[in-house]
Amino acid sequence: MQKEMAYSFPDEVLKHVFSFIQSDKDRNAVSLVCKSWYEIERWCRRKVFIGNCYAVSPRMVIRRFPEVRSIELKGKPHFADFNLVPDGWGGYVLQWIAEMAGAYPWLGEIRLKRMVVTDESLELIAKSFKNFKVLVLFSCEGFSTDGLAAIAASCKNLRELDLRESEVDDLSGHWLAQFPETCTSLVSLNISCLGSDEVSFSALERLVDRCPNLRSLQLNRAVTLDKIANILRRAPQLVDFGTGNYAAELQPDVFSNLAGAFSSCKELKSLSGFWDVVPAYLPALYSICPRLTSLNLSYATIQSPDLIKLVSHCPRLQRLLVLDYVEDSGLEELASSCKDLQELRVFPSDPFGVEPNVSLTEQGLVAVSLGCPKLQSVLYFCRRMSNAALVTIAQNCPNLTRFRLCIIEPKTPDYLTLDPLDAGFGAIVEHCKDLRRLSLSGLLTDHVFEYIGTYGKKLEMLSVAFAGDSDLGLHHVLSGCESLRKLEIRDCPFGDKALLANAAKLETMRSLWMSSCAMSFGACKLLGQKMPKLNVEVIDETEPPDSRPESYPVDKLYIYRSVAGPRFDMPPFLWSMDEAVKILH
Amino acid sequence: MENSVAYEKATELRLGLPGIDEPAVLSSVKNNKRPLHDEKSGENGKSAQNETAPPSKAQIVGWPPVQSYRKNNFQQAKKSESECGGIYVKVSMDGAPYLRKIDLKVYKGYPELLQVLENMFKFTIGEYSEREGYKGSDYEPTYEDKDGDWMLVGDVPWEMFITSCKRLRIMKGSEARGLSCSGV
């Protein structure tokens, strides 16, 4: 009787039902129910997310999901952001584009993160997909404004072009003029990463003029303050706006023009940009501050008193990114004014200075934890911390989902007791039961990892640096953290034991990065041999790892699960430990 | 402690290398490549490191973890590369998804540069002659100069080349031949 039920629904009905299921997790679950559901589901999956572009090949994706309209790919490991991954490592998108060009003529959305995108790739996108709507290049590199010109010229219905934090070769500012006059479909345009001469302002103005649905616009640093009013008057419907540089000599007419332009934007909720800020122009924002939910001042070199004044006008603020110029006093003001705050990121203004240049300590963060009960996400750079402060923060904010603390000097102990910060971070993982992401710093022993393994059951991403005493630390994490997907470690005394003992765990994770640790070449080879479903890759820019004894530690190690087998595009400094790959360099 | 017993049992797995008692574990974390200054912490970690830190010290690569994008943007426009005195240019090759960056200051002349390019992209460049450009290969190394023109690598004296070269492109096929015939 039960079996008949499953066959009694025609495929069309199931397809219709499945169309309401958007999340990847749920879709994956659906496809496991039975063979016919697998078949139906794969034909109607429209969105694919690939967290590691080397985990699967384009061909395999196309074979399983023939009708994809939207794809998201991630390339380099996260530590590439901090120059730990050598240039030329990989993450090339060209082959993906080439294969999808043939298989997915209706592909409409491409989102890439930390990938190498050449002009050739962009030209191929422009040529191949007639219905192309969304291009997001997050932290990508390898392309120039020539490639952008091709996209602008060919993509008739482009809705979104977002180049955030990408590195673009500046060649000519005229690429923006390539958008045809008939293009009126833009909803989101982020060109904040472009250098000085890369944007023709008149072309930008005309583009903004003819796109009535433009909701999100981030200008680049070269756009001067006096131009903002022009843009805003053409786009009063903006919800999200990024200024260029926010500096000019104070002139009353410029100021009132600017203030008037801002006040005409009734939907504006989010602001960013603010390079080179002249504080006298900040009051031009006051009319929209009461509506602001997100404010990114992380490039604004303004001092605490000006920040306090601004923030006190923003009672609805949910997200604040700021430099440590905000100081403890600024954060105390934030705590009293912004009760809706969910996310706080405080960046260092002088990360390489030895002495503190601002009065920002653990007190600021404690104040925010006390005053902002909805706090969920924290990124905090500071120079001192105590276990007591961390315990307080943990108790005040049990809803934290992301906690990233960077105490600037490695191995800094509790400044009050000189103890390691094990107990403090232990309190964080114990109290914050929904914690998904954690970054550690300061003086830490194996004990902190014991806490993490015991309590961090929902932890998905862990970043570790200059911590731990022995393999036991790594073992606690690998054996205890059930939800772990990404683990990145640098400069820790973790060697072969824990990794080999927990080899099977690695197949349940997306990736593991270890650099300047104590993994031996011999153990890496062993892991590569025994675990065919893992790609075990050793990176060494000075010499081949097999030119040294097997017990010698490897410099950098990147391990990730993959159904695609070893890479075809390995650079000379990268060695695969896969048995099938002959090491010929 | 209970955990360490469990750990010891867990690590007694068959994954150990045969014929060796224990997988090799190095106690030293350092290798002589990293610019990491010496740090010792006591058994229970109670050393007050801050007090003994020297006033100026070598920068640790990638620490503190501030994104390079953020670092570049925070300062006034200038990229740190040029401050070090290197002449960095991007190198692309038609058909290859690779994009590499090289420092032209490192090389003494064209032969060295061409050798490096051949190694980097695994191809061979033909014989160069002023009249006919590169013969004997499908590929030709070209570069874009400060005026935005595409030139054949080797046409101008080396010193002039490194100061005017903005980026390199190894062209393939007919496009390349067109350049050498008409440009020179």
Salient structural properties:
heterodimer, A: 585 residues, alpha/beta, Monooxygenase, 21-stranded mixed β-sheet, 23 strands, 32% helix, B: 184 residues, alpha+beta, Ubiquitin-like (UB roll), five-stranded mixed β-sheet, two-stranded antiparallel sheet, disordered N terminus, disordered C terminus, Auxin-responsive protein (chain B)
Structural classification of chain B: alpha+beta
**Alpha-carbon distance between the two ends of chain A:** 63 Å
Beta-strand share of residues of chain B:
15-25%
Q: If you compute it from the alpha carbons, what radius of gyration of chain A comes out, rounded to the nearest whole angstrom?
A: 26 Å
Number of strands of chain B: 7
SS elements, strand count of chain A = 23
Listing every helix as H and every strand as E from the N terminus to the C terminus, the arrangement of chain B reads HHHHEEHEEEEHEH
Short description:
The complex is a heterodimer of chains A (585) and B (184). Chain A has 585 residues and is an alpha/beta fold. Helix content of chain A is 32%, strand content 17%.
